[in-house]
User: What shape does this take?
Amino acid sequence: MSKKDLNISEFYRLDIRDRIEKIYEQGLISENDLFSLLSGNHTLNSSSADSMIENVVGVMGLPLGLAMNLVVNGKDYILPMAVEEPSVVAALSSASKLVRKSGGFSAKDGEQLMIGQIQIIDIKDIESCKSALIKKKQDLLNLANSFHPNMVARGGGAKDIEFYTHPLPSRKQRMIVLHLLVDTCDAMGANLVNSMCEGIAPLVESIAGGKAFLRILSNLADRSIFRASCNIPTEFLKNNNSSGEEIRDAIILASEFAEIDPYRAATHNKGVMNGIDPIAIATGNDWRAIEAGAHSYASISGRYTSLTRWTKAKDGSLYGEIEIPLQVGIVSSNVNTNSTVGINLRLLDINSSKELGKVMAAAGLAQNLSAIKALATDGIQKGHMTLHARSVVKAAGASEDNFDEVLDDLVLSGEIKIWKAKEIISNLEDKKSNKINSSLDTDKSLGVGFGKIILLGEHAVVYGKHAIAAPLPMKIKAQIEDYSEGTHILIPRWGVEYKLEQDPTKQYSFEKPASIILNELGLRSKSMKIEVFPELPRGMGLGGSAAMAVAIIRALDNHFDLKLSDEEVNRLAFLSEKVAHGNPSGIDNTLACYGKPLVYRNSDPQFIELLNIKKPIYMIIGFTKKEGLTARTVSKVKTAWKKDPIIYEKIFDQIDSIVLKGIEAIQSEDYEDLGELMNICHGMLNALQVSTPEIEKLIDIARLNGALGAKLTGSGGGGSIIAICENSEIQNKMISSIKKKGFDGIPITVSNEKIND
Assistant: This one.
């Protein structure tokens, strides 16, 4: 496997399967690792767990995420993090991205020695005892090393012995504490050090003339110190509201608070460990020992203080540094008993425990930067509302079926509390009994955009041919609220929350559609919060981006009383679609705007005609659960069309004739003929190479279960299929079969009846 650039843009926007495939493509994991992650076979099973601890009754999992953008000593790293706390992975990635622009982190290590302690008591003469032990130091080292000759052969083993005296009040005497300093190489080493201490204890007793009482390693690893630092020019710190110098000084103030005040230092250092512990867990290291050592080291001066320090450098930049004890390893029994640990170590691509320690120190500094920057500027709660809301909904006991709807209503309420989430759950249950409506159903200030299915004509419609499309009962809704500063966009269901970048040259691709709408409406200077509540699944070919654009435009219209016509809403949504997809046909935004079955052609002027459906059409939508990217498939077809326009124009013409016959079939209520036309159209789309194995499998399931016809809908490359059914019984049978095969689906009815906003 050859390594590529690890700066993977918009990694968080991919679904889980695509993320796994992306890190495989980057050469970060092997083919075996790929299959293990895709299948879930990497997770710890009960049998393996039973060999690790006592009285096992099950296995408790943790989310495993990847933090991106970290550069340490000029090398790129992707960090596996096992953690349940929302925003930790995102915060580390964000801070690493900031420091990356400044050249990344510098990190270094010193000696890497573990400390084993032997407590010697009942000593008659302390000084004579210490002198005798010092004389026999080499004998003690030789004996300790005889227990682990392989470690010595690799350059490790017991390296030195130190002696300390302390009072022993209960005995009214003094004791000697022997420190055995051991280099464990790349091993985690706790058992090794303990066995050495046990092994030399009898000789220690004979030399000292006292009793060797406790023999145990120390978790205060102050002989294994790692340091990391970074310099950040102030130009990289500025935001829409504060200069880089103001943010630098605010971070320094927060840092000084933690240096001086132990109450603040405890929370400050917890933030540091948020970056270190998840990596320790993911790599099979003892995070409890690391925590204990770090907090002990923070108070080694006699006063608990911060593990990091942020100051103003001579050139005016922000300088940060961390000094922390870390006893970590990359060789342990965990690698064999928990295959996820092995995958994570390969993902990290580290060659030694010293390299791991440097990476973890840098991660701790990055996590700390993210936390205090948020505290010192925007405030920590503002940045994590949607993630916090998701946790609250989960804690309130929302089911998988109603989770998203509860989340939307909770965010809309502004009361991110468990009691409020439980109240919403209860209301939704009442709604199903026709007692009340959700606030999303009744709030007239919300903007609404409709999802859609294309019955016939996708891709050809981009090239001026006809298409038939119908709206879905699933919609996207949006709400606008006045805000203190900037434009903030929240999509709770998708875990999206960001502040719109003012400078267009610095905007990510996903920010640009919203930005162009605001510019066109002259609202770019207004401060607002845009909350979006999608019922449509993301990336399933159902017109989600267009529905979102229409919902946002209508919400802006409602909030600012712009009095926009439907034609103006449609025009603005089409501009947004052009930014999102490059070369759209305009059918998605037209359906999202008008919400009625249409015949559509992308001509000048556009041809838009209502489709008269006399008899309702029973259909299902089957979801592949693999997101399709419209811009990618549209571009792929365009490239092929440019290469061989004659062949592709013939395909588009054939699709167009199928669409026109489809209109006749709908008007004459001949849905068997419509189904056959759908089958033929899917064959044409296959010729355009926009289908996938998942789509083909779903179509086979639909046809085997009585579909009159089935085809992909939308741009393809993933997404969804549609199928026509004779009646509702076949609909239900088909949905059941689709779910049994690991996919998902819903029944729909296409008719002239208006879909409620």
Notes: The radius of gyration is 32 Å.
